[in-house]
Every structure is written in C-alpha cells, then in structure tokens.
Design a protein that fits this description.
Blueprint lengths: L2 H10 L18 E5 L9 E4 L6 E2 L8 H8 L9 H17 L5 E5 L7 H7 L3 E5 L14 E7 L8 H8 L3 E10 L6 H5 L11 E2 L2 H10 L3 E5 L3 E5 L4
Length: 236
C-alpha cells in the first residue's frame, strides 16, 4: 500500500479515538498534525488530540509484533557502557533522591540489555525487570511496588491508557512512577525531529498530556524535566 492509498484508507476509516484520553467526539476528535515527508516513513500520518495534546500514529502505520521485536533486537544496550548509564541516570536520580534505600521497584520495558534496574540495585534498591519481549514474567504485574520506572518505552505504546490502567494500581501509596520519553514541541520542530523517524516511535506526550495523566489517574505530577516525568501516588 503506497502513501496515497494509506491516506485514503485513513480518511475513509472510522474516527480515530485518542489512545490516552479516548476522545473522539466532534469537538475533541484527533486531527492530522503532521504527515511525514522523509524516507523511509514518507506518508506516515501523526494525529494530535486537542483534549490531552497527545500526538500519535494511527494503527494503520504500526509495525507487526515480529517486526517491532526485530527492530528492538538491533538495540545495543550495554550495562557497562558509561554513556548509557549517564543517560539512564536522569530516571534513576529521582528514585534515589526521593525513595528510601531498600525500596522495591519495577523497571517496565527493560529491553534487551537491562541496565537501569542494575544501577538502582547497586545503589541499594530492589528492582525487578519486566519486558514484553525480553523479560516476560506476567506475575511481576500482579505485585505492589514502591516505584515503577519506564525509560524510552512510552513512545512505543499503542495503547498508553491501558498501560497506565495496569501500572498505576501496582504502586503503593506514596509510590513513584518515573516515565522517561522525549516530548514534542511546536509543529516546526516536530517536522524536523529525527526521533519520529524511528518506525516504532508512535506516541508522543506533551506537558498537557502529562497533566491529563495526573488528573485522570489521580497521581501527582511531582516533577517534569526535559525528558523525565515523575508522578507520585497520594499517601491517602
């Protein structure tokens, strides 16, 4: 299917609902925000939800699970790489600063080379790994945690609403949810952004999106950094 056929199919399909806030009524229906012109993703459409400001790629353009995993297999996440550790330290820092030593946590979407959990464990935390493709232990999603981290994962989620419905109840009272993902700015910057040329990057959160998450799931947006959002579950 070429780009023109994809556009036609998208236009003629049923209204797209937002995968975060589920809005699709006439007032809040997501609209086309950007159509990629660069290869290899020329023609891929990005919709933007006016209700929660999530930018997302319709399912028409999503990779199959097999193709998605093949892409992840190319990632070289080496726990001994000092640069990679420094990158992940932006997600580790709030945990180490705000949670007591010995806290129990989960790294959700740990990938083919788990590293953040190793860093946290070295610092005295107790962090397990869960990943759909590389550490698929469903029993870990039935336990309670003092913190949950998810680094460079949320941009890959086709259904972030379902993921948050799953993760937030796993947090103990006062627990932290740390999401690390890059945020889009204005449309001009978005159109030139190399980040969106990864075929597995399909969901992009703005500051407004994180505010929606805090309100809907009743968790405090405690801190918002350049690419890290820190949420806290209320103590009561």
């Amino acid at each position: 299917m070429n780009a023109q056929q994809q556009q036609s199919k998208l236009t003629n399909s049923s209204p797209q609902s937002c995968p975060l806030c589920a809005a699709q009524d006439s007032q809040h229906a997501p609209h086309v925000w950007h159509t990629e012109q660069r290869k290899p993703l020329a023609g891929r459409v990005h919709l933007r939800c006016p209700n929660c400001a999530l930018v997302f790629v319709p399912s028409l353009y999503h990779l199959s699970a097999t193709a998605e995993k093949s892409h992840y297999d190319l990632h070289e996440n080496n726990p001994s790489d000092a640069g990679y550790r420094k990158f992940l330290s932006r997600a580790a820092e709030p945990i180490l600063r705000l949670m007591p030593v010995g806290s129990h946590g989960l790294d959700f979407g740990s990938g083919p080379g788990p590293t953040l959990s190793l860093m946290l464990n070295e610092a005295g935390m107790q962090c397990a790994d869960y990943d759909l493709y590389y550490a698929h232990y469903p029993e870990l999603l039935q336990q309670q945690y003092d913190f949950i981290t998810s680094t460079e994962v949320f941009e890959h989620l086709a259904n972030p609403r379902a993921t948050l419905d799953q993760l937030v109840p796993l947090l103990n009272k006062g627990g932290l949810l740390v999401i690390m993902t890059q945020r889009p700015r204005d449309i001009t910057a978005f159109a030139q952004w190399q980040y969106i040329l990864d075929p597995t990057h399909i969901t992009f959160f703005s500051e407004q999106s994180f505010a929606y998450i805090a309100k809907h799931w009743q968790i405090e947006l405690l801190e918002l950094h350049q690419d890290v959002a820190v949420f806290r579950k209320p103590l009561i």
